[in-house]
Amino acid sequence: MKSDTSMLPVAEPVRWSTWALLACLLLLVIASFATLPLKWGEFFSADAVHTSADFLHGFAPPELAPNFLMKVGVATFETLAMSAIGTVIAAVLGALLALPASGRFGNVARNATRGVLNVLRSIPELVWASILLIAAGLGPFAGTLALALHTVGVLGRLFADAFENCPPLPAATLRINGARPAVAFLYATLPQCSPQMMSYTLYRWENNIRAAAILGVVGAGGLGQMLKYHLSLFQMPSAATVIVAMLLMVAAVDGLSYLLRRAMTR
């Protein structure tokens, strides 16, 4: 039996502005390849391959001394704590800033709050850490604050968009029946958005795990600081153990986050 396609809606023609945007993006990609001095021949040369193989051979076998593994375990816990605390602080502050950013207190508060969130998330974690290390000193405190500040900008924008895109009918029904705006938000809007907000938070926690490991390179503690120390002394077996710990930690957190998101979205 042939399907009747005559009842299907006619596809809208693509606007010229869309084609112009695609053409500009294509020209940008071509210009990027044309202007950058990409030396692919030298990268895949026999000398480069031999040098890379010798460098990687220095990482084997990893350092497995009990005392060193204990230090790696402490640094791993420190990295996890930095990412977890930074994400929790960011989730709380992001939810608070998302209320005015979603337009619930007028357009002036919306535009001002979104401007603050744009500034926070446009500055990378490494830049925040470099600034905060001057004020807070070396250690995980500055790294935690750096993660929190950047993540506030990201989660605040995502939470605000979730509030704006939430179906308004349940909250409107409560308002018609005499409920106050705060009550309608807590009992109608927030329960609808909370699974999506939690999913965003867990995803950002995954990203912060990787960022926390990198922030240690600038002196923010954790596995990154250990990796920088051993690489600077050319202690490749010790650096290999730290890298393996990073990979295992990221894989474990990714799996846990996936299971939690799956459980909440069923």
TrEMBL record:
Keywords: Cell membrane, Membrane, Transmembrane, Transmembrane helix, Transport. InterPro entries: MetI-like, MetI-like_sf, PhnE/PtxC. It holds the Pfam family BPD_transp_1. It comes from the Bacteria. GO terms for molecular function: ABC-type phosphonate transporter activity. It is a multi-pass membrane protein. It is found in: Cell membrane. SUPFAM superfamilies: MetI-like. The keyword Phosphoprotein does not apply. PROSITE patterns: ABC_TM1 (PS50928). One of its GO terms (cellular component) is plasma membrane. The chain crosses the membrane at residues 16-36, 80-101, 126-149, 239-260. Belongs to the binding-protein-dependent transport system permease family. This is Phosphonate ABC transporter, permease protein PhnE. The lineage of its organism: Bacteria, Pseudomonadati, Pseudomonadota, Betaproteobacteria, Burkholderiales.
